[in-house]
Amino acid sequence: DGEAAYILLGIENQTDIHYAMPVRNIIYDALQYGKQVADIAAKHRTDGSKGHSRGEYLSGFYKDDKITPVITLVLHFGANEWDGPLSLHEMMAVKNESLLNFVQDYQVHLIDPAKLSKEDLEKFSTSLREVIGYIKYSKDKKRLTEFLTDNPRMLMEANAARVIKAVTNTPLDIPEDAEVIDVCKAVEDMMSESKTEGAVAVLAGLVKDGLLSIKEAAHRANMTEIAFEAEMKKLTQ
């Protein structure tokens, strides 16, 4: 329509569910609105303007003054579905609708990975899509594998991969100087390494029980005897 709207958008990142989020967001937004009013009043004082009425003079906020809308968006970086209240009324023990009609409600705007559909994920145009998708499927190996293999955008910024690593505790190998990471390959390498470590542990147990020689165990693990013995020492530390 040829019009533009200016807003202040606040992003609240949550790795854990906050069960008082409606009140927390109210405080954030109220402080921002209070700051806007105070700044406008201060500007009037600086300009030497005293307003056109006693009310304008006392409040410092004039009849024609406007404030900018504030929107706080909560971004949940957790695989578990958000089960906290999403409105102020949900936090109250009072359920009498007649009474609650006089109590201002406050809705939380939430992005929750567990509740997003495949179509919802496709609406994201940045690597946040892959980060949120990875979190969403992180507890389901089969669906996570499908998400990784079917997604052509898993080559992402290293910082996005670091978010995945930190939030989901996935032990991805991300070099400090890396700019981009192929997360699909990184996960495959991690799983391959994990399987190798598991196999070495089993073979080491057989050697310890006298059922296999180190030479035979090293051969089965496709390792040299020296390397296999070194891995055995790590397991006993």
Architecture blueprint of SSEs:
Layout: E1 8-14, H1 21-47, H2 54-59, E2 70-76, H3 97-100, E3 109-111, H4 118-121, H5 128-137, H6 141-150, E4 155-157, H7 158-168, E5 180-182, H8 183-208, H9 214-220, H10 225-236
Parallel strand pairs: 1-2, 2-3
Antiparallel strand pairs: 4-5
Helix pairs in contact: 5-6, 5-7, 8-9, 9-10
Secondary structure: number of strands: 5
- Spans of at least 5 consecutive residues with low confidence: none
Q: What structural class is derived from the secondary structure elements? A: mainly alpha
Percent of residues in beta strands?
Answer: 5-15%
Q: What is the topology, as strand order, of the major beta sheet?
A: 1-2-3
- Overall morphology: elongated
Secondary-structure element string: EHHEHEHHHEHEHHH
Key structural traits:
three-stranded parallel beta sheet, single chain, mainly alpha, 237 residues
Account of the 3D structure:
By secondary structure, the protein is mainly alpha-helical. The protein folds into two domains: 1-115, no CATH class; 186-236, no CATH class. Helix content is 49%, strand content 10%. The protein is built from ten helices and five strands. The strands form two sheets. The chain has a three-stranded parallel sheet with strand order 1-2-3, covered by helices on one side. It has a two-stranded antiparallel ribbon with strand order 4-5. α5 packs antiparallel against α6 (141-150), α5 (128-137) packs parallel to α7 (158-168) and α9 packs across α10 (225-236). The radius of gyration is 28 Å and the shape is elongated. The chain starts with 7 loop residues before the first strand and ends with a helix. The model has no long low-confidence stretch (mean pLDDT 85).
